[in-house]
Amino acid sequence: MKKIRVAQFVGSMGCGGTETMLMNLFRSIDKEKYEFDFIVNSDSKGWYDDEIISLGGKIKNIKKIRDVGMFNYVGYLTNFFKKEKYDVVHSHTFLHSGFVMKAANKAGVKVRISHSHSAMDQYEKSLGYILKKKFLQKMILKYSTNLLACSSEAGVCLYGKVFNINGKVFKNPIRVNEISEILNHQKERDVRIRKEFQLNTNTFVLGHVGRFVSVKNHEFLIKIAEELVRRKKNFVLFLVGDGELLENIKKLARVKKVEKYIIFTGNVSNVYDIMNVFDIFLLPSFYEGLPLTAVEAQGLGISTILSKEISKETAVSNDVVFLPIDDGVKYWCDEIEKRGRKELDNCYSSFESLKNSEFNVENAIRILDSIYVGGGKIYE
Asked: Is the pTM above the cut of 0.85?
């Protein structure tokens, strides 16, 4: 049987939410039926590159838009798509999906999917950006066969209100079998990770997973640590991830004299093992599409506190609360104290909610399969 060739068009395969979502799909999808190419325009090696190759995928580096020029970019991509003869082009590059969709259409690609992963531009008010967005949004709507988004907010952000009629929310998929494995050996893993990081069994553990970029609002987490120190709490705060602001946040922790309460792990391959020791997961982001880590935290039975800027579609359990950032850290710390420690024996109910939801990668693949195979325009 001839495989269906799919181009996953993404800036790079680093350790971000979109890339993790794609890897969860790629690990689980039928590789006898599908062939995935990851189209990147990054010169540096991505976090997932080795795993992609080991699983039979391909990474194809193309030129950046600035290297060929905006007016030549569509032609450049068209030639690339014609040469590769893809059946599906699935673009994850927000506004630049306009160029990708037009090029895929000119190359005769039948299934052309634009996928929004963020409500990222709600604070961008410059005239230049607004004009750019209108131009590329029009291209996306004209040349895409399918409009996907990780949440309703992310869909409206990229496509406008037409998304509510013609688009589809595609929940970021999670490999629930890996979470199930953690839950089945939760106590042993908790002991091992606490020993690795020299934590007492009675140490209260807060955690955050995300890139060190401004949108994640790490400064707010440092302020929370300050307030908990003032309240004389026995706690540690795990900050898992890497990014351009990592050193700035480390410096801020030193200046605020809370560095001994914070564990910077960098990017890790055993993120579920580390999340397993969290009593509370914190995500005070200024905006998000639909954060995968917050859903994973709930699946692991972790009490979850999110900013009100995050989509309510993130909630898959009853143990999640959305708080305003503007009310300040005292309000957040009051909620932290109210929630207390995680009960290791009571983590399965939220997992069952996750397992039965569209976040389950098995359910997500069935949805994606119908789009990849079905093809055709889904809206007029």
From this structure: no
